[in-house]
Amino acid sequence: MSPATTLVPGSGARVLIVDDEGLTRMMIRRVLEDYGYRVIEAQDGQTAVRLCDAEQPELVLMDVRMPVMNGFDACRAIRRSLRSSHTPVLMLTALDDVMAVTLAFEAGATDFVTKPINWALLSQRVRYALRTAHTERELRESQIALARAQKIARLAPWRLELDDGRLHCSRELRELLALPGGEPQGARRLLREVASEDRPRLLDFVRRVRQGRRESEVEIRLGGTLHPSRYLFLSGDAMLDETGRPTAIFGVAQDVSERRQAEARLSYHAHFDELTGLPNRVLFRDRVATAAAAAQQSQQRFAVLNIDVDVLQRTQASVAQAASDRILRAVALRLESVMRERDSLCRLEGDTFAMLITDIDAEAQIAGATRRLIDAFAVPLPVDDWELLASVHVGVAIWPGDGQDVDTLLQHSGAARSRAREATGSSCHFYTADMHNRVIDRLNTEVALYRGLERGEFELHYQPKVDLRSGRVTGVEALLRWNRPGFGLQMPDRFIDILEQTGLIMDAGDWVVREACAAIRNLPLSLAVNVSPRQFQHPRLGERLMRILDESGFPAERLELEVTEQIVVEDEQGAIATLHDLAGRGIRIALDDYGTGFSSLQRLKKLPLHTLKIDKDFVMSLETSRADAAIVRSTIELCHQLDIDVVAEGVENEAAMTLLRSFDCDIGQGYGICRPQPLGRLVEWLASATIASAAAGSAVQPG
Question: Whole-angstrom distance between the N-terminal and C-terminal Cα of the chain?
């Protein structure tokens, strides 16, 4: 049995690939031929239009950007052709080229496929488009049969005299076109009532009939002032004289406007919910199937959220149907307000909705989505003159662990929603218990962080930095801790990411700088503070920091901001501009964790750095790894050539400190010198170090 018969029902269809890149055409051809399709190729739009008329492919897969004739113009030409006007056209366009997608649909495209092409999804799209085209073709054939029956009954007949261009209209056609009297009409005058883009097709229809071609038919849109947006179907035959010369054309006209509108309504109702305008279960199932096909290739998870909102159940017994409908529309709008553009929301039935969340990299994305849903309904729902309180219950199933097909995911998310309804108020439940526990723990942590900022649960610990040449303590680094009730002191790796993703990092970051400046202001030490990516992206970071420094009376030259390489890599030009702005205000800049990211010597030269911090992993292996020792030594030498101070993190013992001194490293920091301490214990440590230094000449001396 061939691959075509096993993989694709109704395979063997001819597909025209149009792309000016030969490699792209070859790759698409291989994929489609593996599924049993017969492939025709064209390298530009002009050739594609000609092949559509000559070969009549069942589907066209066409790039939008091509020489000679681009994909938009080619699509319009295909749509104007009688032989290929209904051929499905899938346009190839870049993922983020929204304008190209819009122009493609305006040109008559059926759908689009994004570049780079998802090869697993390509065959699904082609098969779906062919299946839809087959259904539409069957519908058109039924319509043609009906039109021919009306032609036999001479419905709205007409006759065009070829010698003088007079058009004789039947009473039915005069009524249809709102023409006065029974006198023949000038054909050119009536041509002005035809939509401009359809006039060439109508003239071509007349030419074909004059040439004696059988089955000559055309559908045109009337676009004049008397007949806006009405569709007319014409069929005709030539009347010949005794010499065989055509003298007139007689035919039948039919107004197909209602049929066109009915087709549009049928298509809409087949895929959308009439009340809310959201996709219905049928379209949602198709989108989930598409997401599953894409996920198979990318190995990224997606989630199906089964949602109900209890406001309807509580109000429908006491309000009219019209009011219930308005409430339901308000619920749909509230749900739409919290979804991302690439996600899908549908109405399953009644007050039950479903949401498809794609491209899940981490559990935080699911937690964020469910949190947004619950938070959205914490605010009363305005409907007419009322404000209604509503509870939302969310059940979550995740592909592939909770199901690998549409029905299973909907079933399991529905079961999880039933569990969510057992709770009081708005709630969320995951089908998998382990996932449920992890996400609920994260949501609880988010809430606790909000409260922790309000209640003053955060505190700062300070780790000294020692000049390795003199042994003097020259500065400290401020490190954030969270004294969470019931959990004890939490280290940053337990909550920094959540602060970053929720946006709380902005308030927390301001608090860190303000608190640390006030604490260290009267000590003869410099202060280093970490800056997160979200803080760094603030458009007025420099102004924000200077305002805090002015309020606390802390000199800008004593403040050092530590940024990671990743911040610079993500937007190098923007990062360099921001760093120069900060340095211009007198604030020192340190590059943190050097060696763990995309290290670049060229980048070091561009950045206005005062300090570079070598990551602790290199420092802790100095004694055991000759390679790491060589890297540390060469980094120090390079930085000194660039007039950059070097801080070695992770100094654990005297041996590492001795090696770093021999490498001429400037500053040491680590547990071997002093662990991070609250302010009071830091001051005590500084005092005891002073006494020890005076008594025994200790190598570590407070500044």
Answer: 84
Residues in CB range of 268: below 8 A, 6 or more apart? 274
How confident is the model over 283-302, as a mean pLDDT? Answer: 86
Q: Where are the alpha helices (DSSP H) in 61-97?
A: 71-80
List, in order of start, the domains of the chain with CATH numbers.
Answer: 3-139 (3.40.50.2300), 154-262 (3.30.450.20), 276-448 (3.30.70.270), 456-683 (3.20.20.450)
Q: Considering Cα of 68, then 72, then 78, then 84, what sign does the dihedral take?
A: positive
434-478 pLDDT, tens digit per residue, is 656 666 777 788 888 989 888 999 999 999 999 999 889 999 999
pLDDT band at 419 (very low <50, low <70, confident <90, very high): confident
Q: Contact at 8 Å (CB) between 453 and 514?
A: no
Query: What is the C-alpha R_g of the chain?
Result: 36
Answer whether 702's CB lies under 8 Å from 473's CB: yes
Task: Report the 3 state secondary structure along 374-395.
Answer: HHHCCCCEEECCEEECCCEEEE
**Beta strand extents in 531-662 (DSSP E only):** 559-564, 588-594, 611-614, 645-648
Neighbours of 115 (CB within 10 A): 15
d(CA 499, CA 492): 10
pLDDT digits (tens, 9 = 90+) for 561-584: 999 887 887 788 888 999 999 999
Where does residue 614 fall: left (phi above 0), alpha (psi -120 to 50 degrees), or beta otherwise? beta
| Segment of 305-319, 561-575, 595-609 carrying the highest mean pLDDT | 561-575
> How far does CA 351 lie from the centroid of its chain?
27
pLDDT tens figures, 503-521: 889 999 999 999 999 999 9
